[in-house]
Structure formats: structure tokens, C-alpha cells
Amino acid sequence: MSDPIETAIFEKLSRIDPKGDNGKSIEPSDVAKDLQPEQWQRMLPKVRAVALGLMRQGKLTITKKGKAIDPNAMKGVVRLRLPTAEEAAAAKAALPPVTDEDDGDFA
Questions:
Q1: Helix count (H) and strand count (E) of the chain?
Q2: All domains of the chain in start order, with CATH
Q3: Whole-prediction pTM value?
Q4: Composition bias, kind Basic and acidic residues: at what positions (predicted)?
Q5: Which of the chain's termini has less CB crowding within 10 Å, N or C?
Q6: Taking the chain, what is the end-to-end CA distance rounded to the nearest angstrom?
């Protein structure tokens, strides 16, 4: 986890929900404000993009009005929280399978 935005998201979540089982959430703007207090509006699209990537990996859930949203329909005011076991499993199942066919040879 070397990405500073990713680190900031998980640090903020761990502060409000240390065990990760209460379903508490944060706003992407809070993360942006932590990272760049003076120009947080410029940071917000980057935070949302990282959150979207984390959701697709099953590491984060993006919610709207308390319900998980489709990552392709992310618009408006959203919140970030740690995923339930079911949400993480569904996200990982949706990822394309990794194969051993690509051995790096370019013929």
C-alpha cells in the first residue's frame, strides 16, 4: 500500500472503525482535505478514482444513501466504508481470471 491516497483512505477508516465491523463510513472529501487542506477540491477526483479502483478489487465499498452502488454508476455524494465479506467476495469474483498462459515471451 504505497499509494498515499490509498493509505489515507484506510487510515481514516481505521480511526473511525478500528475493528472494521461497524460499517462506519467516511466521505471522500474528508480524505482529500487530510491530504491537501488548501486545495482539497483538486484532490477529490483522485481520491474518488482510487476508491473506485479499491472497490473493484474488493477492498472498499462505495455507498450512496447507505447502500452499495455499482462502480460504473458513481455520481454525486458517496461515502466509503470497508466491505462486508459478501461484498469483497462478489468484487473478487467479478475480476477477470489470472492465467499462466502469459509467460512474458513476445514472439
A1: 4, 3
A2: 4-86 (1.10.10.10)
A3: 0.79
A4: 12-24
A5: C
A6: 34
C-alpha cell at position 28: 471522500
pLDDT in tens, 37-83: 999 999 999 999 999 999 988 899 999 998 988 878 888 899 999 98
The one-letter amino acid code at 62 reads I
Compute the distance between CA of residue 107 and CA of residue 94 in angstroms, rounded to an integer. Answer: 30
Ramachandran area for residue 75 (φ above 0: left; ψ -120 to 50: alpha; else beta): beta
For residue 38, give the C-alpha cell.
488548501
List the grid coordinates of 74. 458513481
Q: What angle do CA 27, 42, 65 make, to 5 degrees?
A: 25
Give the contacts of 14 (CB within 8 A, at least 6 positions apart). 20
